Amino acid sequence: MNSIHRLGLTIASVATVGTVAGALVVQGYVGAQQAAAQANAQVVADRAAAAMSPQIIYVSPVALAATAPLAGSPPVIDMIVPSGGDDGVSNY
Questions:
Q1: Does some domain include residue 23?
Q2: Is residue 29 part of a domain?
Q3: Which of 16-48 are b and which e, b meaning 16 or more Cβ less than 10 Å from the residue's Cβ?
Q4: Which domain holds residue 50?
Q5: In which band, very low, low, confident or very high, does the pLDDT at 26 lie, cut at 50, 70 and 90?
C-alpha cells in the first residue's frame, strides 16, 4: 500500500472515530439536559401539590405547670438610644 493511501486511511479513521465520539458526547449531554428538566418539572409539580394539600398538625395537650405569682411589679429597664441615623448596626 502506498504511503499516501495509508495517510488517507489514517485521516479517515481518525475522522470517523472523532465523529462517533462527538455524537456520543452530544447524545449524553442532551439526555442529561432532558433528565434534569424532567426532574425539575417533577419537583415543581410535587411542591405545587404539597402546597395545595391541607396540613394536619397534631398537638398533644400538656398540663401547664403552676406558676407562682410575681411578688410586686417587675423592674423597669430604661434604655437610652442615640437619635442618630440608623446604619443597620445594633449599638446595644
A1: yes
A2: yes
A3: eeeeeeeeeeeeeeeeeeeeeeeeeeeeeeeee
A4: 1-63
A5: very high
Cβ atoms of 91 and 82 within 8 Å: the answer is yes
Q: What rounded mean pLDDT belongs to the chain?
A: 78
Any domain includes 33 = yes
What does the block give as the cell for 50? Answer: 404539597
Q: Specify the amino acid at residue 74.
A: P
Count structural domains, the chain.
1
3-state SS class at 19: helix
Read off the pTM: 0.40
| Cα–Cα dist 26/32, whole Å | 10
DSSP letter assigned to residue 41: H
Mean pLDDT of 79-92: 61
Give the DSSP H or E segment for 82.
Answer: none
